[in-house]
Amino acid sequence: MASQRLIEYADASPEVRAVYDDILATRKTDYINNFWKALAHDPATLKRTWESIKQIMGPGALDPLTKELIYIAVSVTNQCPYCIASHTHSARTKGMTDEMLHELMAVVGMANETNRLSAGYRVEIDERFESQ
Amino acid sequence: MASQRLIEYADASPEVRAVYDDILATRKTDYINNFWKALAHDPATLKRTWESIKQIMGPGALDPLTKELIYIAVSVTNQCPYCIASHTHSARTKGMTDEMLHELMAVVGMANETNRLSAGYRVEIDERFESQ
Amino acid sequence: MASQRLIEYADASPEVRAVYDDILATRKTDYINNFWKALAHDPATLKRTWESIKQIMGPGALDPLTKELIYIAVSVTNQCPYCIASHTHSARTKGMTDEMLHELMAVVGMANETNRLSAGYRVEIDERFESQ
Amino acid sequence: MASQRLIEYADASPEVRAVYDDILATRKTDYINNFWKALAHDPATLKRTWESIKQIMGPGALDPLTKELIYIAVSVTNQCPYCIASHTHSARTKGMTDEMLHELMAVVGMANETNRLSAGYRVEIDERFESQ
Amino acid sequence: MASQRLIEYADASPEVRAVYDDILATRKTDYINNFWKALAHDPATLKRTWESIKQIMGPGALDPLTKELIYIAVSVTNQCPYCIASHTHSARTKGMTDEMLHELMAVVGMANETNRLSAGYRVEIDERFESQ
Amino acid sequence: MASQRLIEYADASPEVRAVYDDILATRKTDYINNFWKALAHDPATLKRTWESIKQIMGPGALDPLTKELIYIAVSVTNQCPYCIASHTHSARTKGMTDEMLHELMAVVGMANETNRLSAGYRVEIDERFESQ
What ipTM describes this predicted complex? Predict the structure, then answer.
């Protein structure tokens, strides 16, 4: 598998096209991200991943923008350039302002810092946090 | 530094007490987490960390609960048991419901999965995500 | 140390050449990866790393291809672009098919997801998994 | 959500029981791991995760034991105690010997080391690894 | 926020300029890193981060070069290309020799390896390491 | 392999004893860490890992205490409880003071924070950092 090979709509099998069509319809867009075009070499994973994403990222107890912010937080923590770029874009289309992005980054940075302080000092979990 | 040594309020220096007092007042609580009691061996870091947290986690473009959810997302990604326990507790006190926790975990899990799929397949960043 | 400086065979010291020669002979190739050419600035680490790799990656209870798949799994989890590219290449030369790559990625993605679900929900280890 | 609350079969909703039944039947076992009992608080994630695992971990181009080894490699890299314990157990039931475990650990350790050497020295990807 | 937008001194607000001026004076340089120019979109984080860095990285019980080595160790472990490049540069200006860089990388590599061996084999912490 | 099984000196094979003896002599101690006793199930990895550690952690351009600090920095970043405990202990025996530990933790925390800020804002590497 080449790192650059992407399966375009015109070249896709019916199975892949069905997923692409659902992405386009669900997201009300005419654009398929490179991520899906790369996954399309493995139709089973393409379908499973898209259906999971669709189920998870839709509205629920958390709104779609909050979910995008959480997605970015994970992607930044993992140093995943593709996911940072694509989900920052998604979050923008869902209303993320500059101020929100700045606060998100500040929280992500601080959490990564205190995660290490608590590990490094081997802080024991407070009893009251054990049952919640 | 022992992994268990915690500095209680009664044993704290005036410098440390001043931070403890601010934590108690800001959070409207009578409880100091073990994290702060462990950091108290290094008053400079205790003070700097608390003041950063206080500045970052307060209300802004993102509400305090959303910030807690982001904090949990980072802590889970980093496999930090202390931070998962303490921020799950914090989020509960700020109104996180079971449904919100479930959706948070689903997004965090999925993001960790697709972070690896995009890395493993070496997906190139879409041009349209480069300038945003 | 420049990020681009690589020590070519023609410019290598006898100590470095001895390692290069062993890599070429062991791998039955006429190509030295950039990784080794970069490590060559530190002959002690070059030699130690190569000898460890040679000992570890050879046939044993696990076959060399399975070891490459495991190497890729780690590299993808760590978001290491160089290692993903070089070990995907190695795995290809050892017989990895597209189907195997797809299944590898699916497992790696899923493992990264459930690692976080188990951490986030703070699942206790089953007693029966404690002694094995 | 308590870190200890697990939903036992007897207390499970029909929706959760259906998943438990499929786990028991698919794995030909009479035991449900704590992981599933913790996820059961969120039936949608329980079902989605189980169905994904079932699809991914079954036989294919890679045999089920190889997939368990890959799962362990990821879990060790992520320092996930629960997943290390549970998938080491699974791999044992699928035939992993001591020798295989030892070789797996040696590869995982070495991959984590060279991932950092290549990052620290900022090794550029060899041209021949770009298209594969 | 574009990934490329950097706020140059000439375009900076008085608030941002005050931080830039302090960086230039403290570091006795006429160069502001891209990192600060990117953070400048969020003056609160720019100021807080700079003041924390200034407090932490100055001389103390550990000398500034040792602190840079530690900074690189973290950045390499996290696979952060920007931080590896910028802190390798910083360490060079503070006297890091090639030999020091090589030993640093060897330690970082080995630590990443044994971190996984101890996790994978689930080694229990020695009693004597519990109180220190 | 049980997570608790440790091979004591009295029960060790001659091959394992030879490594234990070298650890005891090199470290001028009468204590073998659990880490080595767990690795002893795989004599090849025990020997290779010990010889690598011995070569890497000895005095060189960096002194042994500095190397221990770097080891802790990596272990804290990776959230590895065993390695944090054992290398904090080692560093103590090599002269690490409370002040040094505090400064170490402060640097590790801050590096983990700025690693994410630079990733999240997708900061481009400064040209002057490219060749060093």
Answer: 0.96
